[in-house]
Amino acid sequence: MNVGLFIDGPNMMRKDVHVNIHKVIEKCKEHGDLVIHKIYLNKHAKEGLINAMKNEGLEIQITPYDVDIPMALEASEAVFSDKIDVLVLLTRDTDYLPLLVKAKTRGIMTIVIGTGLGFSVALKHTADKVIFIK
Amino acid sequence: MDILRLFGIKPRIKGIAFFVNGPDILSHKKNIDMQKTLKTLKTKYNIRFAKVYLDQFASDKLIEAVNNQGYESDVCISDVNVAMSIGIMEQLYNPNIEGIAIMTNNPLFLNVISKVKEHNKKIIIVGEKNLLDELKNNADEYFVVK
Fold first, then answer.
1. CA separation (Å) from A121 to A125, A134, B20?
2. Which residues are within 8 A (CB) of B21 and not within 5 positions of it... i.e. 6 or more apart?
3. Contact between B78 and A96 using a beta-carbon 8 Å cutoff
């Protein structure tokens, strides 16, 4: 099974959230081959964070505006082009709810990874699987 | 048509999908005639469907008015821009849609414009008189409503 991991950087890579990216990647690999692993960051991302994400082997996309639209576009492209069988989102943002619904209707397994802090109830109840990582 | 069927080709009418960013466009101050907009667009393009994305603050009257004017409505509990981008992306994989028309004045849709172009489909931007230059210049065609 092909797995696509999309990380909402500004929403998750924060000091108060504490996400262990290494663990996230390991969890994704349990579900199949990780064919897409991309983190979306905005212009305020610090160089240390960018380097750390590079070291984890993630593809980085830095956007001048909000990351929600670029991430939703790329993730939905992966869904509609049948590139992936499992969609993994690392976010707490309810904005991605339509993406989960579309992926589910196309028979793609949906997983949302969070830390529990400020996690969206809508995402929790929509995704096929929710994984909490500390 | 029958010859096409003999070769297993199903005849399909191709056209344009029209998306409207409701919270961005449908305000009292702007006072845009949506029925006239759709009518004018239909004279230039073969509009297959028109969809207005609204947020949770949209009143029942607004939703009814939108539907009465020939638009499909989608009320989103989450961010309208994200939901609309996903809807557009879905249509890029629809072989019967050869172009996308977007009615917005939000620069965030520049990402959507480039995605549409990547898929070799036509992108038409519809807006009012103060339509952003960045949207105008990146679109294949733009159309200003009065």
1. 6, 18, 28
2. B53, B80, B81, B84, B102, B103, B104, B105, B106, B109
3. yes
Closest Cβ opposite residue B82 in set A80, A98, A122: A98
- The answer to whether B79 faces chain A, any CB pair under 8 Å, is yes
Please give the backbone phi and psi of residue A68, each rounded to the nearest 5 degrees, phi first: -55, -50
Residue B86 to residue A69, Cβ atoms within 8 A: no
CATH assignment, A9-122: 3.40.50
* Token pair of B42 as six digits: 């239909």
Closest residue, chain A, to B111 (C-alpha): A70
Distance from CA of A133 to the nearest CA of B (A): 24
Selection from B78, B118, B69, B91 nearest residue B19 by Cα: B91
pTM for this structure? Answer: 0.90
Question: What gap in Å lies between CA A81 and CA A100, rounded to an integer?
Answer: 15
Report the gap between the CA of A122 and the closest CA in chain B (Å).
Answer: 10
Distance from A56 to chain B by nearest Cα, in Å? 26
**CATH superfamily for domain B14-144:** 5'-nuclease (3.40.50.1010)
The answer to whether the CB atoms of B82 and A68 lie below 8 A apart is yes
The tens-digit pLDDT sequence of chain A (134 residues) is 899 999 998 988 887 777 888 888 888 899 999 999 999 998 888 888 888 888 888 899 998 888 999 999 999 999 999 999 999 999 988 899 999 999 999 999 999 998 877 788 888 899 999 998 86
Q: Where are the domains of chain A?
A: 9-122
CB contact under 8 A, A68 and B89: no
- B102-113 per-position pLDDT tens digit: 999 999 999 999
In DSSP terms, which residues pair with A13 in a beta bridge? Answer: none
